[in-house]
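Q: I have 181 residues here and want to know how they pack in 3D. Can you give me a structure?
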Amino acid sequence: MAKKTNNKSAFSSFLPMLLFFAVGFFLGAFITRYNADKNVLGNNTTGFDQFGYNYQARLFNGKADGVDKTLDGTFWGDPTYANDKLVMKWSKAWDDARFNGADWSSAAWTDNEWNGKVPGGSGETWHYKIVWVGPEGESSPYWHDGGYPIWGEFEVIFSQGTVVNEHFWDAHANPAGYTSN
């Protein structure tokens, strides 16, 4: 059983945040590509593409290599994480606000599950749940105790993972589910 700890080395603290921000970078870059694909493919396209995206289901399920829509054996240029499995899900409210210009609401969330315990993978695992809380941040009525702020109007309500078989909890808000307060 992996040991739970809050004492992190500089390396183990940096690496999960690097992965987290890489996925965050993906979400930012994804906006333009998502809309371009919808325009080219049409809104009625169903099923997964060769990279791992299913736009109708609001889901990515594939190797990290496919996130940037370039199957080149790297994850944003780094081969270390290319074979890791990544599952990203986002709510309709997230999709509508992020990609279609709707107002943000407390129903907007995204979930990222990282699994490097696969053949040729990094060996790391991470799980993040992120919700919109609004510009008030920690003063928002949507704020969950135990989370931490990110990207200005969002909160990480759940963050845990393993590096070198050591388990870390960065956030475990109450509630840790996708509900508004």
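Q: Anything worth noting?
A: The first helix runs from residue 10 to 41. The two ends are 34 Å apart (CA to CA).
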